[in-house]
Design a protein that fits this description.
Helices cover about 15% and strands about 45% of the residues. It is of the alpha+beta class and about 375 residues long. The N and C termini lie far apart (about 70 Å).
């Protein structure tokens, strides 16, 4: 195997694999990426069995072949060598010689035969979707996914598609049992992804999908089949195994009774919460919210650290109200809002509260109050 490729192209391709290759594994081969040279292109493949990335780039291929090498070491080499044309040649014993200008590396590899079998092409129907729409779904729900592996159905985000007139409503929901984020977007056109029921995309898969989306402007392709989600850009195919579990009925959590709505500026509430959060040793303590006479007072007390109080003017003329929230959850819910004004609907009688962008019903975060 021998080929030449631009250093920046190869560097970008290897960088995409770093979040997928396994750092701690009983299968050392999963630390490696598979390099395959064929027909004037190279293919870079990385997998941890659950997530697979396949990237294709144009290259000047002198002789075809394949080998696996450490993703981390190859990335570090590409990062340090100068810009220009990189020449890569496979030697006897599955080692590679990598040269660019006067820099020369030799890196040991492993046989491609030991690498898990990965199909480059899957017969999965793909549908166009604006990358911004899927990015927004993930960005505004990811924080609410659970990290508790004993509840696997909560360790990912739930995606469902609802047919509506001439369009399709995409809804992504995530919850860890204490808060619940719901985000919706619209895909135009009758022909789109059809799901009999929603799917659960795992946290790690969401991270890798978001990375891919952030590098692409415009349309990407999305498909789901055989318990696998596929996202495809011009150069990269990402395959993510779905979580095989039942997502809870999130509609039961949505408050039916209208709460007390208070509107305030996003920047002001964020700064106030961050100032108070300095006192929290873990970032997840309880902040007490007191509403009275057009004023909202935030109070925090950590016996091991100290106390903090902040206040801001709001439009409120009702009776004095005191309610508590996990400060980290409150912060997360507000940070992802795009609007300058935040609508905060406080549930009555210790019912859940809802955080939204004012005038925007596409995003809601339901937060359970704390007992005071």
């Amino acid at each position: 195997m021998e080929f030449q490729i631009q250093r920046n192209t190869l560097l970008a391709g290897i960088r995409k694999t770093l979040g997928i290759v396994e750092k701690k594994t009983t299968m050392p081969i999963l630390n490696n990426v598979l390099l395959r040279a064929r027909s004037n292109k190279i293919t870079i493949i990385a997998t941890d069995i659950e997530i697979t990335l396949i990237a294709n780039y144009a290259a000047d291929v002198s002789s075809e072949g394949e080998v696996t090498v450490s993703a981390k070491k190859l990335y570090e080499m590409m990062r340090e060598i100068p810009d220009g044309l990189v020449k890569i040649k496979k030697n006897d014993g599955n080692s590679l010689t990598i040269s660019c200008q006067k820099a020369v590396y030799r890196i040991s590899g492993m046989s491609a035969e030991e690498f898990p079998s990965v199909a480059e092409e899957e017969n999965v129907p793909l549908f166009k979707l604006d990358s911004k729409a899927l990015t927004e779904l993930i960005s505004k729900s990811f924080f609410a996914t659970s990290t508790d592996e004993t509840r696997p159905n909560l360790t990912g985000a739930y995606l469902e598609v609802e047919k509506k007139d001439e369009s399709n409503v995409l809804r992504m929901v995530a919850t860890d049992g204490h808060r619940l984020a719901i985000v919706t977007s619209v895909a135009l056109g009758k022909e789109f992804l059809h799901l009999e029921k929603g799917i659960i995309i795992p946290r790690k898969g969401l991270v890798e999908i978001k990375k891919l989306l952030e590098e692409n402007i415009g349309d990407i392709a999305l498909g789901v089949e055989r318990n696998m989600c596929v996202v495809k850009s011009l150069e990269v195919v990402l395959k993510v195994s779905l979580i095989d579990a039942e997502f809870p009925d999130y509609n039961r959590v949505i408050p039916q009774e209208k709460g007390i709505v208070v509107t305030f500026e996003k920047d002001k509430i964020l700064h106030a919460l961050k100032r108070i959060n300095v006192i929290s040793s873990e970032g997840y303590g309880g902040v007490v919210v007191t509403l009275k006479n057009n004023l909202m007072v935030l109070t925090f007390n950590d016996p091991d650290v100290g106390e903090a109080t902040d206040e801001m003017e709001v439009d409120y003329n009702g009776e004095e109200m005191v309610v508590g929230y996990n400060i980290g959850y409150f912060l997360n819910a507000v940070e992802v809002i795009d609007e300058q004004q935040v609508s905060f609907e406080i549930g009555v009688n210790n019912k859940p509260s809802i955080v939204r962008g004012a005038g925007n019903d596409r995003y809601s975060c339901i937060v359970m109050p704390l007992k005071l």
